[in-house]
Design a protein that fits this description.
Blueprint lengths: L4 H17 L3 H67 L8 E11 L7 E4 L12 E4 L2 E9 L4 E5 L5 E5 L5 E8 L2 E8 L9 E4 L11 E10 L6 E7 L9 E8 L1
Antiparallel strand pairs: 1-2, 1-12, 2-5, 3-4, 3-12, 4-5, 6-7, 6-9, 7-8, 8-11, 9-10, 10-11
Length: about 260
């Protein structure tokens, strides 16, 4: 006849209790110490994977934030190099290095009907986020803060913006607008400009919406326009995968 497990457990507990009652106080203290060590070991065994996972996630976020810092620094170095080359002989210009502060954020939602319009991130005014702050990833410019709440913010992607831009190598200016997908158009490029495939397009800083030197994309096609012979038709492509953004970085200052 099978033994009821509940009765067996109660019986064992009674035996342990009676045994402990017969021990001297020092013996009871020793048994309690051994039990505490055993429970601590079990707890460590149970929770150590969780602790390791949390630690790894935090390290990954830190590494990604450092990558953003390096990417922004590289953008500034490139822009500073071109400006130095252009101005140092005539103005004795010395570009001062600027510092940036970035706020990491996770993408928590997006409008499925407007994939290339806006997304929501999990940081807001409590973390120092304000309207119009630029948002980036290591690959380049993502957009700007459209609306900031206490703990969330809406990011307007650059597909919905017209961005004052400049060809970094040639200093040719224009206005970037979205064409389709990751393809953009650089408008108002004079037909006499020497812009060519592979040139990098960065924000010019004009208009005050985006700071100077943030990467928008690289030129992939340049052609003449029959309908408007005064301007070239220039297309550039962003390296940002807007459809798969999971983590972005808000630039709270670049000065």
């Amino acid at each position: 006849m099978p033994v009821n497990r509940n009765f067996l457990a109660i019986g064992l507990a009674l035996v342990v209790a009676v045994s402990l009652m017969g021990l001297t106080p020092p013996q009871k203290a020793e048994v309690a110490a051994h039990l505490q060590l055993a429970l601590g070991a079990v707890g460590q065994w149970v929770f150590s994977p969780i602790t390791r996972y949390a630690s790894t996630a935090e390290k990954n976020r830190l590494v990604l934030a450092q990558n953003i810092e390096l990417a922004l620094e590289n953008m500034r170095f490139r822009e500073a190099a071109w400006e130095n080359r252009r101005l140092r002989d005539t103005l004795g210009f010395k570009q001062e290095m600027v510092s940036s502060q970035i706020i990491p954020a996770d993408v928590v939602s997006r409008d499925p009907d407007q994939l290339y319009d806006a997304l929501v991130i999990n940081v807001g005014r409590e973390q120092g986020v304000r309207e119009n702050m630029p948002v980036v990833v290591p690959e380049g410019l993502v957009g700007n803060i459209l609306q900031a709440e206490d703990r969330t913010a809406v990011v307007q992607l650059i597909m919905s913006s017209r961005i004052s831009a400049i060809v970094q190598e040639k200093r040719v200016q224009g206005v970037v607008s979205w064409a389709r997908g990751s393809l953009f158009r650089l408008n108002f490029v004079d037909v006499t400009s020497d812009i060519e495939k592979g040139d990098r397009i960065v924000s010019s800083g004009l208009g005050g919406k985006f700071p100077k030197g943030l990467v928008i994309g690289d030129v992939i096609e340049v052609r003449e326009q029959k309908r408007d012979p005064l301007f070239k038709e220039v297309f550039l492509e962003s390296n940002v995968n807007f459809g798969k953004l999971e983590e972005v970085f808000v630039i709270s200052s670049m000065n």
